[in-house]
Write a structure and sequence with these properties.
5-stranded antiparallel β-sheet; alpha+beta; 11% strand; 5-stranded mixed β-sheet; 54% helix
Length: 735
């Protein structure tokens, strides 16, 4: 935790009005060699704070010292900065002109610079002339400059004194000549230790340094902002060296943690809106951490801060103990949410080697509550385990089961195995396997195959265990098991959005069904009859991951290469998605927004969430990653749809048949109500102005397709049967 104190610069001391400390630091600084940029900045800050009068005697004394040490140029720059900051012109002007002549009168550019700036003896006020002269003075060869208007950083290549032109080469490779009077206005000079300057000199080097020594780079940024800055300013600084998006988030997460644990930084606020300041005096890291925990918003936030201690390994033992003590205190409060209290107790158990007594007491009280009348409903204890936000916490609960149920805990848990939280599945299954209780697990597996949606994670795990070898006749047949897996795949596919658990299980199940040299689905469906294959194909049509759909299609075609041929019916039958040009453009626009707006925005969200703490316990990060998977999958789905789309405008629409591209008027037989609808594609809902638009794939339109004027039909709608008569059919006019 210990570290060297930061370089508390003169500018920081002036910015914080630490004038006593400033005076001491000034004396020390005057005895040192090196650049005086910090001195000049401090003088400017003193002027901004109306404290320049106290610096004037110090500057004059320092100027004499510098002049005697053959540093007339530094002396002139100090006096000039003091004049600009509000120093008394009559008191400073004579010194300034004398020092300037001593420093630069032999340079060929000196006289032209003075003339252009108006820096001449006898001028009533040299403040404005000196500003111009000082700016030109900075434009020396190899000096770094920055063009805020868009050209970025560059390096002064040379000066044409005769033309008073500046030659600048930019990082982009572009170079040009600029009149000196224009350069004064359009360029800012960069310090060599500024990130923009360091990036210009060695972009790869500064990025590597930032990743290796984030605290050093953070200190540089904070010092540049006079000792205190914000998350946004830090982020903008990192963007200048090419660290942005998820890379920025990872960097900020690490740098912020190091700063929080450093005795020389003060960090306040959330990761997204932090303030970071350098301290004059080192703080006690243990007390600082204790203060962080005391101000945490409940046990959940405190738990996140304690977990952060273990990121990277080798946490400070004193800080860990403080964190555990505070978690123990917060977890004892009944006002805190029980799942978060349990998560805290689990961490305490992991690091202290024993379960807190209060934890066991509370869990036994939960266990003693009334059992649900239906065994398919999870009891209170299992609901509590399911409510734990992190998979790691869920996994840790398994060690509590022997303490709650005794030595026969495997027997007690077996009827409830289907209710185990997702994170508990792996260690629980492993425990039964180690105890040679494979048959018990097979019984659970057999039962779940008839109700595959009840415990998705458990079914997937048991399938991985037992589908490696033939199962006996007590189990459903291979085609039936395939139906169970495809039903689960369809369920997970439809429910995965916004649900990280379903997404993980869906991905795991997809790998199990389609992965390897001999995929599970192929083994189960091999030798199946046509009816079983058609049932499998139908489940895929309802929605599964593309990998599953492709494999089932492949298996069906291997069975019969004409499997999907069937009869050649009307154009709207089959896999083609018929849509208008406007609908197609709308769908394409949705894809463009996903690729260019939503997915990039999500990448930033992932980075931001990653800065919040341990990724394994980070709900925000998990939600952002889930959104990434959803957005990417959605983009892939739309791409596949677009590849399969065709325009209704390309079809000769019959005048006497209900089909996509027609306006249909029908009469409800019972009520006599007459209603018109426009039958178009599934993406045309907002693209057609006029009658109500109905997708030709919707139940209402599907029941009307192929009918003619005067035909009657019974429509099978979600609300029930509807008897109708077609009274009018008109092809739609589509632009």
């Amino acid at each position: 935790m210990a570290g060297a104190p930061p370089n508390m610069t003169l500018s920081i001391l002036a910015f914080r009005d630490k004038w006593q400390e400033f005076d001491e630091a000034w004396k020390t600084r005057m005895g040192e060699e090196g650049p005086i940029d910090d001195i000049l900045t401090a003088i400017k800050i003193a002027g901004d704070k109306k404290r320049i009068a106290r610096l004037v005697p110090m500057v004059k004394e320092a100027a004499e010292l510098f002049e005697a040490g053959d540093r007339s140029a530094d002396a002139a720059r100090m006096v000039g900065a003091t004049l600009i900051a509000g120093g008394n012109p009559p008191e400073l002007t004579p010194d300034l002109m004398r020092l300037a002549d001593a420093a630069w009168s032999k340079e060929d550019w000196y006289a032209p610079f003075c003339e252009l700036a108006g820096l001449v003896e006898g001028a009533p006020d040299l403040r404005t002339p000196w500003k111009k002269f000082a700016k030109m003075l900075a434009f020396q060869p190899k000096t770094l400059v920055f063009h805020p208007g868009g050209w970025g950083a560059g390096e002064v290549q040379g000066l044409n004194v005769a033309k008073l032109e500046l030659h600048v080469k930019f990082a982009t490779g572009m170079q040009d000549h600029f009149p000196m009077n224009a350069a004064i206005d359009i360029f800012d000079c960069l310090r060599e230790n500024e990130l923009k300057g360091l990036h210009f000199r060695d972009g790869d080097g500064i990025r590597k340094h930032a990743k290796k020594e984030p605290l050093d780079v953070l200190r540089t940024i904070v010092e540049h902002h006079h000792g205190k800055t914000t998350t946004n300013a830090i982020r903008n600084a990192l963007m200048q060296i090419g660290i942005e998006g998820s890379a920025w988030s990872a960097w900020w997460r690490k740098a912020r943690k190091l700063a929080e644990n450093s005795e020389w930084f003060d960090v306040n606020g959330t990761p997204a809106k932090s303030s970071v300041a350098l301290l004059l005096d080192a703080k006690d890291p243990t007390e600082a951490f204790r203060r962080q925990l005391l101000h945490a918003n409940g046990v959940g936030e405190a738990l996140g801060k304690v977990r952060d201690l273990f990121v990277g390994g080798n946490p400070d033992a004193a800080l860990v103990e403080i964190g555990l003590e505070e978690l123990e205190r917060l977890a004892a409060l009944e006002t805190e949410a029980l799942p978060e209290r349990l998560a805290a107790w689990l961490l305490l158990r992991e690091h202290r080697g024993e379960t807190p007594e209060l934890c066991l007491q509370v869990l036994n009280e939960v266990l003693a509550g009334p059992a649900p009348p239906d065994p398919s409903i999870a009891g209170s204890l299992w609901e509590l385990f399911q409510a734990l936000p992190g998979a790691k916490d869920q996994e840790r609960t398994v060690v509590l089961l022997p303490e709650l149920f005794g030595e026969n805990w495997l027997d007690e848990v077996l009827p409830h195995l289907q209710h185990a939280a997702a994170g508990m599945v792996r260690p629980l299954v492993d425990a039964y396997l180690q105890a040679k209780r494979d048959e018990d697990l097979k019984g659970v597996y057999n039962a779940l195959l008839s109700r595959p949606l009840r415990a998705a994670a458990l079914l997937a795990r048991l399938a991985a265990q037992f589908e490696t070898e033939p199962l006996d006749d007590t189990f459903p047949t291979p085609p039936q098991r395939a139906q169970a897996f495809l039903s689960l795949a369809n369920h997970l596919h439809r429910q995965r959005r916004g649900n990280a658990h379903f997404t993980r299980v869906c991905a795991r199940l997809t790998d199990q069904l389609t992965g390897g040299a001999d995929p599970l689905l192929r083994r189960l469906l091999s030798g199946s009859e046509s009816a079983a294959l058609r049932a499998a194909s139908l489940l895929c049509q309802r929605g599964v991951d593309p990998e599953v759909d492709h494999l089932v299609t492949e298996i069906c075609l291997e069975f019969d290469r004409h499997f999907f041929a069937g009869q050649h019916g009307p154009f709207w039958e089959g896999d083609t998605i018929w849509v208008t040009k406007a609908g197609l453009e709308a769908r394409s626009g949705e894809l463009k927004e996903l690729r260019e707006v939503k997915i990039p925005a999500n990448e930033d969200a992932i980075g931001l969430a990653a800065s919040y703490g341990d990724l394994s316990e980070n709900a925000e990060w998990e939600a952002a990653m889930e959104e990434q998977r959803n957005l990417t999958r959605r983009a892939m789905e739309i791409e596949a749809e677009l590849r399969n789309a065709d325009l209704i405008e390309n079809v000769a629409i019959p005048e006497d048949t209900v089909c996509p591209g027609t306006r249909v008027t029908y009469r409800e037989t019972v009520s006599g109500q007459v209603l018109p609808v426009a039958i178009l594609g599934p993406w045309d809902g907002d693209t057609y102005q006029g009658d109500q638009v109905v997708s030709y794939r919707a139940p209402l339109a599907a029941g009307l397709l192929g009918l003619g004027i005067g035909d009657n039909a019974v429509l099978d709608l979600p609300s029930g049967e509807l008897k109708v008569e077609v009274t009018e059919i008109t092809p739609l006019e589509m632009a």
